[in-house]
Amino acid sequence: MKETNLSGGKRSSNESVLPETNGNPRVSLTGFTNILLDKSNPDKILTIEEERERLRVRFAELPSMSFDGGNVGPFKRKYSEALQILKPFRPASKDGKIPISKAGFFSYIFLTWFSPLVWRMYKHRDVPVSESDVWECSDMEGVLVNTERMKLLWSKELHDHGPEKASFLRVWVRFIFTRSVASLMILVVNALVTFLSSALLVNKVLQYLESAEDNLLYGLGLTAAIMACEVVRAITFANIIVFSAQTGTRFRSGFIGILYDKLLKLRVSKGKTNSEIINAFSVDSYRVYIATWTTIFIISVPVYLIIGTVYAYTLIGYWCFVSVGTFIVCYMTQVQMTGLLKKMRKKCSQHTDMRVRRMGEILNSMKFIKLYAWEKPFNEAIKNVRKSEQKYLLYSALLDAVVGAIIPVTPTIASVVTITVYTAAGNDLNASTAFAIIGTMNFLRIIVALIPIGFRAYGEAKVSFRRIEKLLTLDEFSSPSPDVFNKENAVEIKAANFICETVADDEETKTRIRGRKSSVASSRRESVNLFQLSDIELEVRKGQLIGICGSVGSGKSSLMSAILGRMMLAKGHLAVSGTVAYVAQQAWIFNASIKENILFGQEYKTERYSRVIACCGLETDFDLLKDGDETEIGERGVNLSGGQKQRVNLARAVYSKSDIYILDDPLSALDTRVGKQIFNECIKQELHKKTVILVTHQLQYLKDCDEVLVMENGTVVEKGHHLELMASDGKYSEMFRIFNLTEMKSRKIYSNNDGAPVESEVTEMKKDKKEKPAEETNGIHKPKAKGKLVQAEETAIGDVGVSTYTAYIRAAGGWFAVLVLILVNGFCHAKVSLTASKEMHDKCLDRVMKAPMSFFDTTPTGRILNRFSKDLDEGDVFIPQVTNQLVRILSLTIVSIGTATYVTPWLLIAVVPVVAVFYVMKQVSTVSVRQLKRLENITRSPLISNVNVTSQGLSTIVAYRQQDRFFKRCVSYGDVASMSVFLFDVSMRWIGLRLDLIAGLMTMSSSLIFVVTKGLIPPASAGLVLGLCGKTISIVQFLIRLMNETEARFTSVERLHEYTVKLGSENQDAKKKAPSKWPEKGAITFRNVVMRYRPDIDPVLKDVSFEIKPREKVGIVGRTGAGKSSLATVLFRLVELTDGVITIDGEDISELNLNIIRSKISTITQEPVLFSGTIRYNIDPFSLFTDETIWEALGKVHMKEKIKQFNQDLDTMVEENGENFSVGERQLLCLARAVVRSSKILLLDEATANIDTSTDAMIQQTIRECFADCTVITIAHRLNTVLHSDKILVLDSGKVMECGSPQELLSNPYSFFNAMVTAQSVKTPSP
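Given the sequence above, the corresponding structure tokens read:
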């Protein structure tokens, strides 16, 4: 099924987003958005902005043109393409796009254009479905066209009402208005024929049976009329849904597009905003789609009431208002219930946002959580939020059950009350009139049945609209002005203040704070001034190299953000003249090959590319990687070291050929040799004619800068050349004095070499070049066998397995609970269904938390979030609804058919073949319904992943001017997702239409039997049967559709169940129990350790052996990618060993409980991890320590005074990922976490890489004091941090090159460590 798409059309990667047209270059494409296409230059490739501009052209501003070039009226001109559907027959479309808009009239109304897909899927039912198996999205249903239209409507709304009063609800109404009017017209026809078949014609048949007249032809005519009405009713009802669903698809596409467009324009994308956006894409987009095609039933209320009231009045006069009044009472009750339902949904969505945000935070920080053995507590944290969410879900479900209980009894109550009152008043009532009244009440039952669906969808959509209103009115990014006063300047900042503000609005956090300090909680909503840059004066000449230094939290990264336009300019002047390339302090890498990450949308130039990777020191890394630069990188660069990620980030910047380079501390993650190479060959040589602004803690590089800025407390305190600043004896010279004390001048041997590599290093470098493989060309290692890291999401095939249903039943409470559910529907059903949903969520969450790191490395976060958002939403909301309806309708169907056949056994002649045909049609249609639902499930994941990646790398994307490229990705993913949703609903209507037509035979058969056998069957019995048949017609086909939909909805349960049974788990079993006080000493031994991350790749640790004595301080050094962090990985058993043994205090860690091992070792990772919440929560998330202990730890890491600056002290808010703290400050808070924990073994993985030299020196002293009785393993590039270690371990290419004390290694002029120290000009400590 995967070779070609359905129509045989092939997709092209450079296919135009807009449709191709032939003939006249001026064409009106649709009735909604009027587009002018200029095909005079077909070879021209349009940018997305040009495409958008063309979309903005209003047809009303153009000459009135038809397809043949003639003048036409405004209606035909505007809807000329849409009216083509009225042609009886049209040639089949061959462009590979969905043919609904190009189908002929009969193909359109009978949905035969969809039939090829149904039969194709049935034929290939044992093959997994993929997006290539279905049609492409047409342009008028696509994201691009509808986004532009929605943006125009939203702009008009903002213009007319202002941001404060702007309503997205009004935008929605304007967007769907014309097509909703068309839907209403079709619905009027449907209402009339439904009334004719269910009430008027049935009454005429009964009157004929009651009369003495024996006109068989008249009776047959009535029967034919009933059949004709049933055919029209079936066709119109199916087309109302399909037409409205098409409208909903267009709105959903525009909803997705305008939201993503806004995301690209946000000045700052933070945690709460990100979770709301992800929820909007996964859940809200579907809710507004449902609301768009269901609210037509709300509009239809007057139509049904008028028709029903008028006919009832002709039957019984003003007594008809008794039945109408009964319906209105029931209707108003439903309206009130729906209002309450909307309030519950709003409360529930707040908790859902919180849960999705927490889940995303956990998934992004899973490595850290596993290192600290915090899976269980964070698991409980998610479940607690889920518990609050389910409380409101239960309230909503109970209200829904009340509304559902009203639906089936309303016609009966109205009929009984009306007939009772009418006869009690002394009026005569014959069988034909009585059954006509009952038929009319059943006709009005449609109002009661469909209105709750429409109102519920409308209420949920209003909640979604309020959410998007809030998002669309957030502050937008504004590029700095290019108008510099001095044309020689690249960057100008004059008398400028920059601020960044946020509002703490986290309900969970406020609750936590309220429990501790009510006074603090009351001020939680106050705006907190996170950081401010004051009185900034900066002029950067074109071609200058500017160095920026300062202590942790002084404002260096904030200044970079200000230059990029990411901080609010409160006053002053900011101008940036030229294109900008940005290297963030925390490298942003997306899931693609290394090559794609470097090119980043630029055209590939071999010579330029080779030069870039050479100057960025990536050649050696490409040699080590199996597929060279074609190696696939996981999300966030999970399979690269910190230094590799940073150099890929830097290579992206250099390759962009920008005018200005903003480099935010890119050298901190690099070892000394590579760092020196990058500075000399990349920054000094490759970028020598460019403007470079370099933030660094490596002070040795500042002497080569044209100008140096020193920052402190958000302002520039000193500025000038290195020599000038040294002579001024200010802050800069003080920093250098500390630097020189820490990184003292080398001994004579080093000063003679002036930092040049010693012989061993030169020899090693030459050796590296000699050993490059022969197939390397232009410095690029050719791929040997390209493999996929992130595999395509698998989809199930065939029927939803019995194991899925049984797992759901067990989660609901077992078979007894299901039996109760069947017998006592409503409230019990709501409780049982939500119990099942809760258990499925908890089991799935447990499995994900226990999954190995390889799962998170190879699975995009969006794919996991998809299951915990939309799939879970199916279980929470939609599955309870459809199963509730299924149980009710199934029992009603059995009763109706049983009664009808009991009264008229001859009816079995029609029932048996009809049921057989129903069964065959169900078997055929179920395949397409189920598979299209599975396709919908998997096509959401790339869309959500794209949103997640975009929000994480927003600054980089905008800095490199890649918004258009990422928007096109959103268009592509959004089109596929929207088409999957639409096709799923069309598949439901395809089978519904055919079942309706077949079921119509049942009514016709009944009527025919009564007409032919007139006089043999009492009219009262005939009326009862005809009434039941009319009800059964709609009920049986509804039952079949419900069965199909239930199975389709259960594909989401299937996906959750898949994680619970198929997802691998870390080896939690312990072969032996660790001693109670283990580890007492902290001795560590590696013996012949071999480790590979995946079975199909080369090992990253190769026969590693060494021994660490109790309380020994060990430094681990080596070039970037040497395997240093991999040692930490195996020590914590994030990856199990391929071979070898690791022992701690003589205990083989592979035989011990995993949580015990991780809880007994503390670590500070290369990338600091903070969670949204308070300072206290981040240091001690489970309240194990007192405030005094936490303050003491903050004092030891020199963050106490910083936290004291905030009024809330330990309740100071931390944003997601610690965005309101600098990277260095985040690292210090992580160190405080380790100090509080006070483990016997501490592993520091580049823990001070983002900290200035003076703070680093104080931190090293803190570590020596606080962890004097502990074994400390320090992985570092800054060699002074390990010079006081007892032992140095040098790694290269996953092997131990040498091991010994610093003095021992430095005494050997040919040692690797000696060469590294020489490169950094570091003096050894005295013995």
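The two ends are 72 Å apart (CA to CA). Try to locate this feature in the token string yourself.
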